[in-house]
Specification:
The protein contains two helices and eight strands. By secondary structure, the chain is α+β, with helices and mostly antiparallel strands. α1 (about 55-65) runs antiparallel to α2 (about 115-135).
């Protein structure tokens, strides 16, 4: 169940960025959705990370947007990589789970692909989710709530 989300509707398949609890853990989910009967429903195309990885993910997207070729965000057996490539003369950014095949990292179909403009919108959506999450659990991102005695 989604506790909070930001919808990015700049593609034919909207992307929902959400913070939610799954099996007792706070998660960040970035996933393509489709519309059916007036409701947005999730597809299998997307990623999920522990919510504490959100600052690292934002940094990785920013680094790739600023010229780094590939950035890794740890996520156990299936890390997420932020990658950049060109297709039909347009720069595209991928946020995708990877796996190891014969000692080489390879992308899975689980992830999202964005233009440079949309990657900036994704960073803003991640920042909005980060603010909402840190309001719920102030120590989550290294911020400690000050409580007056």
């Amino acid at each position: 169940m989604t506790d909070n989300h930001v919808d990015l509707t700049f593609t034919r398949m909207p992307i929902r960025v959400s913070g939610h609890t799954y099996k007792g853990e706070r998660k960040i989910d970035i996933r393509h959705h489709f519309e059916k009967d007036g409701k947005l429903l999730p597809t299998q195309k997307g990623i999920q990370l522990p919510i504490a990885a959100l600052p690292t993910l934002k940094d990785a997207i920013g680094k790739v947007m600023n010229g780094n070729r590939l950035e890794k965000v740890e996520n156990g057996a299936f890390p997420v990589f932020v990658d950049e490539n060109e297709f039909n003369g347009k720069k595209l950014f991928h946020v995708r789970h990877y796996y190891v095949d014969n000692g080489e990292w390879k992308p899975t179909s689980k992830g999202v692909c964005l233009s440079a403009t949309n990657a900036k919108a994704l960073i803003m959506a991640l920042e909005e989710i980060e603010q909402k999450e840190s309001a719920k659990v102030p120590s989550l991102f290294g911020r400690v709530a000050m409580v007056e005695a």
